[in-house]
């Protein structure tokens, strides 16, 4: 069986994301309408987050490419969803502030609350299991 891993260091915000995911998981765990672990993880990853967990540099590169050439090829579905939302918000702000630099607009957007974690269930399980193991020791 192939072991699923998360690329460490893919964003300087991974520690914050992991902490926020664990908090969302604990909150979902207390809900009476969620009957099993899978539903709890799903609820956690679909919960709103304080920010988009992506570096400004990466977001600027992707947004620039997206706005000039369209969605980059071979983008994973969750990344595509996240960047689709980021680009939508950047364009919205850009209509109001057409002279503002794209870097500034991207920074403003990724600092805003996000509608979800943009993680697959599999990735969320890996993160949550690692956090549980770390907190036991």
Total count of helical runs of at least 4 residues = 6
- Report the sheet with the most strands, covering strand number, pairing sense and barrel closure: none
Q: Roughly what is the average pLDDT, rounded to an integer?
A: 90
Order of helices and strands: HHHHHH
Low-pLDDT windows of residues = 1-9
Distance between the termini: 26 Å
Radius of gyration: 16 Å
Strand proportion: under 5%
**Overall spatial form:** elongated
Number of strands: 0
Structural class: mainly alpha
Helix content: 55-70%
Write the layout of secondary structure elements.
Layout (H helix, E strand, L loop, with lengths): L13 H16 L7 H9 L10 H14 L7 H20 L5 H9 L10 H16 L1
Helix pairs in contact: 1-2, 1-6, 3-4, 3-5, 4-5
Characterise the protein shown here:
It is a single chain. With 137 residues, the protein is an all-alpha fold. Helices cover 61% and strands 0% of the residues. It has helices spanning 14-29, 37-45, 56-69, 77-96, 102-110, 121-136. Helix 3 packs across helix 4 (77-96). The longest helix has 20 residues, at 77-96.
């Amino acid at each position: 069986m192939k072991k699923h891993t998360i690329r460490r260091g893919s964003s300087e915000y991974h520690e914050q994301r992991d902490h926020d995911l664990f908090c969302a998981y604990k909150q979902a765990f207390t809900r009476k309408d969620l009957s099993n672990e899978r539903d709890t993880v799903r609820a956690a990853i679909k919960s709103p987050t304080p920010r988009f967990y992506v570096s400004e540099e990466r977001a600027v590169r992707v947004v620039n490419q997206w706005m000039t050439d369209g969605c980059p090829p071979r983008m994973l579905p969750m990344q595509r969803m996240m960047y689709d939302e980021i680009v939508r918000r950047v364009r919205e702000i850009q209509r109001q502030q057409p002279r503002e630099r794209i870097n500034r607009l991207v920074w403003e957007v990724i600092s805003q609350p996000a509608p979800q974690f943009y993680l697959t269930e599999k990735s969320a399980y890996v993160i949550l299991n690692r956090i549980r193991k770390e907190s036991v020791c």
